[in-house]
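pasting input
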Amino acid sequence: MEIPVMSNILHKNDENAAELNTMLTTRGIFTVNLMGSPGCGKTSLLEQTVSLLKNELTLAVIEGDLYTSKDADRIAGAGTPVVQINTGGGCHLDAFMVKAALTKLDLAAVDILIIENVGNLVCPAEFNVGEHAKVVVFSVTEGEDKPLKYPLVFRQSEAIILNKTDLLPYTSFNMDAAIDDIKGLNPQASLLQTSCRTGDGLPAWIEWLKAGAARTRRQANMIQGVKCD
Amino acid sequence: MHELAIAQGILELALNTATSHGAGKITGIRVLTGELTGIVPESLEFGFAALAEGTMAAGACLSVRIVPLTGRCRDCGDERRVDKYRFICAACGSYAIEIVSGRELKVESVEVE
């Protein structure tokens, strides 16, 4: 006997992610799912973000990593609350892991939560973790072919960060081809070119984050019935 | 290797479906995966077979159908296959393409005895 089902395989994760998203919106915490391959510069970007934002907004970070706490140690060193999730070999974070990690953070004063996903351009794109926006980082040393080789993560992201631009003179990275592929895949995304070594392009990233935080704060105020300007 | 997490979701859905119908054995499962999900059917089948061992879905045949990526233009309504991941309307040049199919990750049906 054949039983029709037609159910979404990831529905449990999606339900949990939606619940987290509502909770984070109500609290006015702009939440970013930061994705990218190993070594693209996600943690360096986070260190810079902490240092550039710390006088204006309060950040918290959830660090996804297979086994180590190396990234979390770096972020803690930069002076921001951080919770480590070790996936023990798992290639992505899911909403259940993030939900458990959130209980270890004092969310009362947090304006922006950044969830650094496991370094991987494939799996993290498929699993919502309660975020308001997905962001993908890729670097000029990885080559311009990455967007078309990993289309989902680039299609799903609201901001695409092209990092390590200071290394452009030492690579054969084809910037025109990269931009053309990204525009074709995701014309609405903000494309930001950054160098965490020189600081180039980081102000635009900080402005992007602040705009997201302001948007989420307005939504929270509306939910709470507070009159906003 | 997110296929293992997907395989786990498929197995749970199949076991729940079979149990709620009072079935004792699952012989086949039809799965739909969109082109944009990047699922490798062989990896999914391998992961599923490993997870299903010792359950009533052990040895069940997993049939995976890949749904092509199609989009609809929000400006002119043109609907067609998205070629080479270029979300630009071939009819009017608009960039406002919404995905119609190609993101599916669904269990279509479960065959039980």
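fyi DSSP finds eight helices and eight strands in chain A.
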